[in-house]
Amino acid sequence: MNRRLSRRAVMSGAAATAALGMTGCLQNPSPSGGGGGGPVERYTPGDTPGSGTVSILGAFGGQEQEAFLASLEDFESDSGITIAYTPDTDFTNTIQQRAGAGDAPDIALFPQPGGMFDLAGKGMITPIDVFLDYDELNSTLIPGFLDSARMQGRVYGAPMRMACKSLLWYPKKAYEEAGYATEPATMQELYEITDQMKADGLTPWSDGWGADQATGWVGTDWIEEFMLRVHGPVVYDDWVKHRIPFNADEVVEVFEIVGDLLKGEGNVLGGTDTIINLPFSEAPLALFDDPPKAMLVRQGNFVTGFFPEDIQENMDEEVGVYAMPTWDGGFDGQPILGGGDLAALFTLNDDTVAVMEFLSSDEFGKEWAEAGGWLSPHRTFDQSHYSDEITRQVAAIASEAAVFRYDGSDLMPTSVGSGSFWKGMVEWLQGAKTSQEVCDEIENGWPQ
Questions:
Q1: Domain 42-163+338-401 of CATH type 3.40.50.2300
Q2: What is the pLDDT of residue 30?
């Protein structure tokens, strides 16, 4: 698996790096309005007093809801503002229906940007530069996070939770006893490690894409991870936003690179048939057999909830994790693929602004972090609040990243991101279609 880039790919990655260097961080749109509509009119405290109650609609309930509300208790006590949170498992449809009927909550917590952009395009959501200190917020966030909430030069959502996907998990005791490196600098170095695993009679990877009607989404993450590493965030953005076609040479090449890994003989436990049929939640289980049947699984921080119970009870001793490495000859920096919840404002007044300021700050979430299952999008969040060492390691990986990018399929049109892309990944892995054929088909079906 010691694959090297072609000269064209190296130059593409270098160009992307140079472009990122020239553009730098996201710029504050306030001076010009960002979208060419003139100066931004800033909200002045006292312009519109609130009622004392702020309504919030979100997608999470149960223990997450309890931890979220616990994180708001001190703020409510200090500010005198009551927060009325409503969870809705059908959030995506509910927020569209309520906003369309003139019954939007004061604040909504969007798990994906797409629905937020739909409502922002209708003028229902206030851009954050109207009421937040954009530069201050951007200075504490993981670089690039605000890109996930940007549309036509304005940012419409403030990150209040993140998910980190670019993680490689391993059975700590078996992996370290075998002497495998825990900090490979590049994917090519990791390939050398996995070649050694095969020489030792081990299967390097476990992977599962099974998810009923959503089978294939794990495969889209593989493509997104390598698009970021091989070609960098600028080309990644162009691809996700369809400024370059889905069947561009850069994309087809990444399919081929990922194919070398996933389809290579002896690389993945059970081969491609197992990958398609194994539920994604069961992919990590092979790591914790005695002895392990595989040594690595690539998945987001949420995957720990699918580890065996005895492993979850002692994760700091049983589980190791490191960032998916960079690509030699590709983007010069550690990118992180992920997701997150974005707080968006429908009602502009003193109380709602105060809540948005708190939700988007690095002071929010201490109680949620202590309860577990939550990551702050801020580099400056006090990581001592996380409940275990493995979560602190994940938080450090994310906070030290050179750039963050939102899951690409979540940003693409629904018919692609959770339609033809998922379907195409399955056909590609099964060998029914080539990389070029799958990319051509997705491109030809991209909505006009």
A1: no
A2: 44
Q: How far apart are CA 235 and CA 327, in angstroms?
A: 15
CA distance 73 to 68: 9
Q: Where in the chain is the domain with CATH 3.40.190.10?
A: 7-16+165-334+409-444, 42-163+338-401
Interatomic CA distance for residues 131 and 359, integer angstroms: 13
Handedness of CA 216, 218, 219, 224 (dihedral sign): positive
Token pair for 319: 């589980």
Report how far residue 278's alpha carbon sits from residue 284's, in angstroms, rounded to the nearest whole number.
Answer: 11
**CA separation, residue 271 to residues 223, 274, 303 (Å):** 18, 6, 21
Confidence of residue 29 (pLDDT cuts 50, 70, 90): low
Rg (alpha carbons) of the chain, rounded to whole number: 22
Looking only at the bridges linking them, the beta strands covering 82-87 and 53-58 are parallel
DSSP 263: S
State whether residue 64 is helix, strand or coil: helix
Would you say the pTM of this structure is higher than 0.85? Answer: yes
293 within 8 A of 300, measured Cβ to Cβ: no
HSE-up (13 A, CA, CB side) for residue 155: 26
Question: How do residues 123-142 score in pLDDT, each as one tens digit?
Answer: 999 999 999 999 999 999 99
Q: 7-16+165-334+409-444 adopts what CATH topology?
A: D-Maltodextrin-Binding Protein; domain 2 (3.40.190)
**Residue 93: which H helix or E strand, with range?**
helix 91-100
Cα separation of 352 and 130, whole Å?
13
What pLDDT, on the 0 to 100 scale, is given for residue 301?
94
Strands 158-164 and 403-406: unpaired
Provide the 10 A C-beta neighbour count for residue 210: 18
Judge contact between 318 and 391, C-beta under 8 A. Answer: no
**Is residue 178 left, alpha or beta, with left meaning phi > 0 and alpha meaning psi from -120 to 50?**
alpha
CA atoms 111, 117, 123, 126: torsion sign: positive
Q: How confident is the model at residue 262 (pLDDT cuts 50, 70, 90)?
A: very high
3-state secondary structure of 225: helix
- Provide the residue type at 304 as one letter: T
| pLDDT value, residue 11 | 33
Q: Where are the alpha helices (DSSP H) in 383-420?
A: 389-399, 408-411, 414-415
DSSP 8-state symbol, 170:
E
Return the structure tokens found at 144: 């690039």
* 8 A C-beta contact, residue 441 and residue 248: no
